Amino acid sequence: MPGPDDAHLKMRMEPPAGPDSGPFWEATRAGVLLVQWCTACDKGIFYPRSFCPVCGATDTLQWRPASGRATVYAASVEHKPAATGSTFSGGEPYVIALVDLEEGIRMMTNVVGCAPAEVHPGQAVEVTWEPLSDGRQLPLFIPLGAPEPS
Amino acid sequence: MMRQDRTLRGAAAIVGVADDVSPTGELERTGRALEVAMVQNALDDAGLTLSDVDGVCHADSSMGFAEYLGVHPRFTDSTMTGGSSYEVHLEHGAAAIAAGLCDVVVSVYASTPRSDRTQKRRVDRRYPAGPNPMAEWEWPFGLRMPMGPYALAAARHMHQFGTTAAQLAQIAVSTRAWATLNPRARHQAPLTINEVLASPLQVSPLHLLDCCLVTDGAGAFVMTSADRARSLRRPPVYVLGAATCHDHMMITQMPDLTTTPGRISGANAFRVAGVEPAEVDVLMGYDSFTITALLHLEDLGFCPKGEGGPFVEDGKLGPGGALPMNTNGGGLSFTHPGMYGMFLITEAVRQLRGEGGARQVPGAEIAVAHGSGMVLSCMSTAVLGTEATL
User: Among residues B211, B23, B217, B220, which one has the least CA distance to residue B112?
Assistant: First the structure.
């Protein structure tokens, strides 16, 4: 079993920032989850874009802090982590989920802080942060009210 | 808006096919040499030659391939929609022939991932140029491609409709039953539901035997106008209808993980063809994973949404069943070189010509080749028929 000093086992593929998602990633440094918002449609946009794909506007976009609460839409467990090249779980099975934020957008994430088999559609979850190498943070989710993972 | 135009119906026909696979999973030829052999074999099947070709489709670069072939096409198509690319080529080729843009269209595919690995060949596996939202929003979470997205779709289908792992496994079992009749299939030994469920979980809820093969494989098809087709070597297989739809590229952007854009492509292709699902004799439905095939059954209208699990339980997809599906043994047991859609077409054509051998569906007149590309992203449906269906 990997120990707490096995930092190299935490390696992830780190996300490149897309052309329209700079503010999202910058806010993660402070642990703030932002959602791109079209004020004309009054709807969230994900992933971030240079225009609103619903109404086409380019001058109605803003960034809003999200509540950080979400509901699991679908969840699966990767049982062969080595096959993905990801070592962040230390070789243990991990959960990949799609979660629906309260703001109405759907993101992929890892649900952590509970046994993988406990994660299920409809489950209430909230954001937690995992540091990336450049100071940005990756939004992961834990069951609502669960303690932050160490 | 509903598609009303029916001019595609019967305008073009597939007149030649070829494919190359091996039970070992590996081929000796690779790359352009393999592609050229497929084109030559398909043209020979039709009784045509390279000098007849004036339309070229290739999912990488039709320009590069046509140059290698020495052909100067009037119609060119480099559409790349993953595994459904060849159904899209079929649709575009038929439309181009119907519109008089060209007379003879070839589409070709060759991929040798298995021998690339065993022979340690260096292969350039590029993702599309430009910003890649998958790298930003999916891959950091350790999403295994392409298995991970399909696992999420299966998990959601199970949650929403009560579909079971055993029902998904039945699809692999019925498909294997067809492969036992195909001496070219990679896996030919019978399979049981328990064996599928006992195979290692990959990304839950998908087991290893819910997943397609990784094999070498290649194929090609040739199309021409219905009029010219009647003078050629083989019985023409007519394009009765064809349609395509995509509603996302990455799984995070799929509007509903239980409903694919095949609901749109299928309805439109059937409408153009004037065919109902109940009239289909052979369904070639892209089976990258068992869940993929199950979603096709629902979205093409063979059963209501959510009822795919109970629908397959009686083994109706296998030999002698009410809905013969993937009669070559499919991507699950025949071959899967990465973009399997070519083999949906070659098998559909052989079934409609009565060349299926031990796996021939008696009296097959109408077949559907339904391709699925990327991660349930791009569906393309071709309804094909014999002369009697015109």
Answer: B217
CATH number (3.30.2420.10, 3.40.50.300, 3.40.47.10, 3.40.50.2300) of B12-119+211-389 reads 3.40.47.10
Domain borders along chain A are: 16-65, 68-150
The residue behind tokens 């998904």 is B168
Q: pLDDT tens across B93-150, in order? A: 999 999 999 999 999 999 999 999 999 988 766 565 567 899 999 999 999 999 999 9
A97 CA to chain B: closest CA distance, Å? 7
Does the domain at residues A68-150 carry the CATH identifier 2.40.50? yes
Going B6 to B9 to B12 to B16, the CA torsion angle's sign is: positive
The pLDDT, as a whole number, for residue A150 is 65
Residue B374 forms contact with A (CB below 8 Å): no
pTM, to two decimals = 0.95
Chain B residue numbers with beta carbons less than 8 Å from the beta carbon of A16 are: 132, 135-136
Check pLDDT > 90 for residue A10: no
Check if B252 contacts A (Cβ < 8 Å).
yes
**Chain A 27-56, CB below 8 Å of chain B: which residues?**
46-47
Asked if the bond preceding B190 is cis, omega within 30° of 0, the reply is: no
ipTM of the complex: 0.92
